[in-house]
Design goal:
It is built from 13 helices and nine strands. By secondary structure, the protein is an alpha+beta fold. The strands form two sheets. The chain has a five-stranded mixed sheet with strand order 3-9-8-5-6. It has a four-stranded mixed sheet with strand order 2-1-4-7. Helix 9 runs antiparallel to helix 10 and helix 11 packs antiparallel against helix 12.
Length: 378
């Protein structure tokens, strides 16, 4: 679920927290392959409409008054890369690998809508042949995301079956497990653009005229309304249909080493802006299940990219190993069985515990934001 689904107040608070970690990224030497993106409340300016194919870096500055996000998109709106929750007056940098062709850069002030768009083009032959280990990492990650989708479907069908049977307690029990595979690979699922709003949007993230469907609509019925309606039973079937669409399409996702690295960072941002705040699972309070799945997904990408990152930036790998281990150990405090996904209900985690979790996420997010640059072939 994109952080854009946060309420307006929570989005500002979350963006401020992320800014403390990533908003003041040091400015590197801007030359060929660096596109300056200046986002404001009603404009989205780019320094170049054409740039060399290969590795491109977006150097983003938010000069507006609203929290924004910036996307590099394919013409059909699939996501190449993105950076979300960019606070007013802050800067971000994101690296992507692009083939020659047409693209769009979109700024989304307020983190809603289609955004303000600029058509751009990547020219030339593209990047030089990359390290074979990175090709192997991409292939392994593609297998992983497909497996997560395949494993999600029977769990989602179990959830839907309980909803359709009107079995409130069975549906509650099946809800969180049905989401684990999605949460592990969320950036890939979100890259298609049209699936996430159907299955994982919260009520305050709906666009004008959008019907509320998916997990969180059913979550509200189960925990808040405490009843299952005939409409909920139809929504359960629709959820399975939409997840089958994801399962069928996930193998076509455009995956590169930099998208894997950026996706790992996005998963930590998901934690920082949704799970730590309690916004994500506001009725079920199963946030720590999602939290763990997001971290596992980020750790999978990192593990596959680690051999190359180790050669390019050994100090970064040492820091990432330490911070992943610390966050995993902290999460283990909230479950009795390390092999189980039965976690403490998040509404029982006090302010001190939430701050400890937030600090651990921020400590990992900062070095993780450097992983994409560390796997770019030197």
């Amino acid at each position: 679920m994109r952080p854009a689904r946060l309420s307006a107040v929570a989005a500002v608070v979350a963006a401020a927290a992320l800014t403390a970690v990533t908003g003041c990224t040091e400015k590197g030497d801007d030359g060929e392959g660096v596109v300056q993106v200046t986002a404001a409340d009603d404009t989205c300016e780019v320094s170049a409409k054409e740039f060399p194919a290969g590795h491109v870096e977006l150097a983003i500055e938010n000069k507006g008054s609203k929290v924004t996000e910036v996307y590099l998109l394919f013409p059909d709106d699939r996501v190449v890369t993105e950076r979300e929750n960019i606070g007013p007056g802050t800067t971000q940098r994101v690296t992507a690998e692009v083939k020659p062709g047409d693209y769009r850069i979109a700024c989304k002030p307020g983190m809603k809508g289609a955004g303000i768009r600029q058509d751009v083009k990547a020219t030339g032959k593209g990047a030089a042949e990359r390290d074979p280990r990175l090709d192997k990492a991409v292939a392994a990650y593609r297998t992983y995301v497909q497996a997560q989708a395949d494993e999600t479907l029977p769990l989602a069908e179990t959830f839907a079956k309980a909803v359709k049977a009107g079995d409130l307690e069975a549906a509650k029990k099946a809800y969180a497990p049905s989401r684990v595979g999605w949460e592990r690979t969320e950036p890939v699922a979100e890259s298609f653009g049209d699936i996430d709003p159907k299955v994982d949007v919260r009520e305050d993230g709906l666009e004008d005229g959008q019907k509320w469907t998916g997990w969180h609509r059913l979550e509200k019925s189960l925990w808040h309304d405490k009843k299952i309606t005939d409409e909920d039973k139809k929504l359960a079937d629709q959820l399975v249909t939409d997840l089958k669409d994801w399962q069928n399409r996930v193998g076509t996702a455009d995956i590169t080493p930099t998208s894997m690295a950026n996706g790992a960072k996005e998963l930590l941002d998901e934690v920082a802006t949704g799970k730590v705040t309690g916004e994500e699972e506001r009725y079920s309070h199963t946030d720590l299940v999602d939290f763990k799945a997001n971290v596992e997904g980020a750790e999978k990408s990192y593990a596959l990219l680690k051999p190359v990152a180790q050669e390019n930036d050994a100090a970064l790998v040492t820091e990432l190993d330490k911070e992943f281990a610390a966050l995993d150990a902290l999460l283990d405090k909230y479950r009795a069985d390390k092999d189980s996904y039965v976690f403490t209900s998040y509404d029982t985690v006090g302010a001190a515990g939430r701050k400890e979790l937030s600090d651990a996420v921020n400590a990992l997010a900062e070095p993780l934001s450097k992983l994409a640059a560390a796997v770019v072939t030197k």
